[in-house]
Design brief:
Structural class: mainly alpha
Helix content: 55-70%
Number of helices: 5
CATH topology: Recoverin, domain 1
Distance between the termini: 18 Å
Strand order of the largest sheet: 1-2
Shape: globular
Largest sheet: 2 strands, antiparallel
CATH superfamily: EF-hand
Number of domains: 1
């Protein structure tokens, strides 16, 4: 899964939830809950390994280490090699 596919997946889910009358995933509380699923150690940053594991837990076992690294790198605006909640939030906002 590439960075665009990752963001697209959340936007698609947002549209589906909106169509069902549920609040959109862009709601910050829902985004925090989603981010927490990726942030396995709860330190506020998602590593490529955490990203890969979370995707596998959601049923996407095709995400490789290099793919996870590419997604994190694409979202990592401060260059620390990790995805913070703010970086995640910006990516789901479009």
């Amino acid at each position: 899964m590439y960075a665009g596919q990752f963001t697209s997946r959340f936007r698609h889910r947002d549209r589906l939830r909106h169509d069902e009358g549920a609040p959109p995933v862009a709601d910050i509380e829902q985004a925090k809950a989603t981010f927490a699923k990726f942030d396995a150690d709860g330190d506020g940053r998602v590593t490529p390994d955490e990203f890969k594991s979370a995707m596998a837990a959601m049923g996407d076992h095709l995400v490789t280490g290099p793919m996870a690294e590419a997604v994190i790198k694409a979202k990592d605006s401060d260059g620390d090699g990790l995805m913070s909640f703010d970086e995640f939030w910006k990516s789901v906002q479009g």
